[in-house]
Design brief:
Chain A is about 40% helix and about 20% strand. By secondary structure, chain A is of the alpha/beta class. In chain A, α2 (about 35-45) links the parallel β2 (about 25) and β3. In chain A, α11 (about 305-310) packs across α12 (about 330-340). The longest helix of chain A is centred in the middle third of the chain and has 30 residues, at about 220-245. The chains are: A alpha/beta, B mainly beta. The complex binds iron/sulfur cluster (2 copies). One iron/sulfur cluster binds near residues 67, 69 and 103 of chain B.
Chain lengths: ~375, ~120
């Protein structure tokens, strides 16, 4: 039976965890991700899951414990953001290098300093080159469904890489939305069991994890990780189709909102997609050909598919909620690479917005479309909302 | 009176060219994922001796068999037999030169490894 519940983005993450019933959850809560962990602890206390919850002493330990658990063939989840993710960072490439499909929830939050608890994507963008699958979500519903998809994708034998599921801190993680929660049995059947190629506890076939691989063998392991990422890109669609059978929703690499005939296109991640869609409807009523491409799968990045979707666009604005100081911001860089695949490259402008939770209003989005329509392009990224 | 020569003949006084055996390494498509290792003691197959740029050559005529080099060698590749220095396992020797440094009678000479390579 499908239930419709009022859930925050965090609660939607916890709901997905409840259905997945992971074997181990090593956690060290941090704002705004704390709510995911507290909600899941409640399920744990109520006996709704038989997960082993490990309340460790810091995020570095949380990811280290996750690595140990996953290496012993336990389905493992954790959650963090901002400084927590930064503190985990040393172990982040270890998880992917050891090919452990840990699935992590992230409610995006700005990095210190100055201290801040609000949303921007600087935390997960700092992990974009660590061989973790990265899926960005606009709504609580998407957070819930992406968590299910990510679990299955990460554990696939041709992938075996960890995955992070992103949602905007507070904006999505703290706001109540209507969320359809699907039947426990259906979801559990979809998720299935975790059968890794190698397990540390396999006493019949003992082997060492994390051995030294120097100049003459390390490179090959890294090449394998790239291959696993390429496989993940293909399997994302395939596993998405299986999930569709339960949810009825589509799992594309990105959302296309009134994009097919759009001349002026905004590209963004996460919750800002919602604000942009409001503006699009209003401008469309005035016969303006505007559209949105909201990226969901950021790692692996769907270059060809995005180029193909943008080939009819006249002008594009890429809205980044993070910076790459001294360089173009991350999403813009990828889009620019994708557009280079086209014979006729549309004009593209970089915008930076929402850093440290700075508000973005509908009028800001309208202004971006108006700049595209007035053919206003500048070499440097433009700032939205900075004083 | 002619002095009796002590110990063995000097080890490789004449430089003998050798072919360096590289440890076999799989390609990325066949390598186990995650840099996993399946057998115990497989570091024996990993010939760290291929890294060296200098090779310690012992003059056994001068060696007093104090075994200091045996103890100090970080690779544990100087072997003793019946309380006497016996030989150096060049396939593991990294050429660090510690043995030559600690030898009290200075009977180990570091030779340029290029001279030994074919
Ligand atoms: S050079 Fe270094 S590794 Fe080689 S035998 Fe001497 S001490 Fe051992
Ligand atoms: S340290 Fe010198 S004298 Fe002592 S055993 Fe080694 S080579 Fe011989």
């Amino acid at each position: 039976m499908v239930k419709t519940l009022a859930l925050t983005g965090s609660e939607a993450s916890a709901e997905a965890w409840r259905q997945i019933n992971p074997d181990v959850a090593p956690v060290y809560p941090i704002t705004p991700t704390t709510e995911i962990i507290s909600k899941f602890s409640q399920y744990h206390a109520d006996g709704k899951v038989d997960t082993e919850m490990m309340l460790v002493e810091c995020e570095h330990s949380a990811m280290s414990a996750a690595v140990g658990a996953a290496a012993s063939s336990a389905r493992t989840v954790t959650a963090t953001d901002s400084q927590g993710l930064a503190y985990m960072w040393e172990v982040i490439p270890i998880a992917s290098g050891l090919r452990l499909p840990i699935v992590m929830q992230i409610a995006n939050r700005a990095l210190s300093s100055p201290g801040n608890i609000h949303c921007d994507h600087g935390d997960s963008m700092a992990c974009r080159d660590t061989s973790w699958i990265q899926i960005f979500s606009e709504t609580a519903q998407e957070v819930y469904e992406h968590t299910l998809l990510a679990t299955k994708l990460a554990e696939h034998k041709d992938v075996q890489l960890p995955a992070m599921v992103m949602q905007d801190g507070f904006i999505t993680s703290g706001n109540l939305e209507k969320v359809k929660v699907y039947n426990d049995t259906d979801v559990r059947q979809f998720i299935g069991s975790y059968n890794p190629t190698y397990s540390m506890l396999d006493l019949q076939k003992p082997h060492s994890f994390g051995a030294l691989n120097l100049h003459d063998s390390y490179f090959e392991s890294k090449r394998q990780q790239e291959e696993a990422m390429r496989n993940a890109k293909k399997l994302y669609l395939q596993i998405g189709k299986d999930l569709s059978k339960i949810t009825g929703n589509k799992y594309d690499y990105f959302e296309k909102y009134r994009l097919d005939d759009a001349q002026y296109v905004i590209i963004c991640l996460n919750a800002t997609g919602g604000t942009t869609k409001e503006v699009i409807d209003r401008l469309r009523a005035k016969k303006k050909k505007v559209g949105l491409l909201r990226i969901k799968l950021f790692r692996p990045f769907p270059y060809d598919e995005i180029a193909n979707a943008l080939k009819k666009a006249r002008a594009i604005a890429v809205l980044d909620r993070s910076e790459s100081y001294g360089a173009y911001p991350p999403v813009f860089g990828e889009i620019n690479n994708a557009l280079n695949l086209l014979k006729k490259k549309p004009k593209v402008q970089s915008y930076i917005f929402g850093i440290g939770g700075r508000y973005i209003f509908e009028k800001d989005i309208e202004n971006v479309y108006s700049e595209l329509m007035r053919n206003k392009f500048r070499k440097e990224p433009q700032y939205i909302g900075v004083r | 009176m002619k002095k009796k020569k002590a110990g063995k003949k000097p080890e490789k006084v004449k430089i003998k060219k050798i072919k360096v055996k590289k440890p076999p390494q799989p390609e990325w498509k066949t390598k186990p994922i995650g840099g996993m290792i399946f057998e115990a003691g497989n570091s024996l197959k990993y010939l760290t001796g291929t890294w060296k740029t200098a090779r310690p050559i012992t003059n056994y005529d001068k060696c007093i068999h104090c075994l200091k080099c045996v103890v100090y060698c970080p690779e544990n590749c100087i072997k003793a037999k019946n309380d006497k220095k016996d030989h150096t396992e060049y396939q593991y020797c990294k050429g660090c030169g510690i043995c030559a440094q600690v030898c009290p009678v200075k009977c180990i000479k570091m030779e340029d490894e290029d001279k030994f390579q074919e």
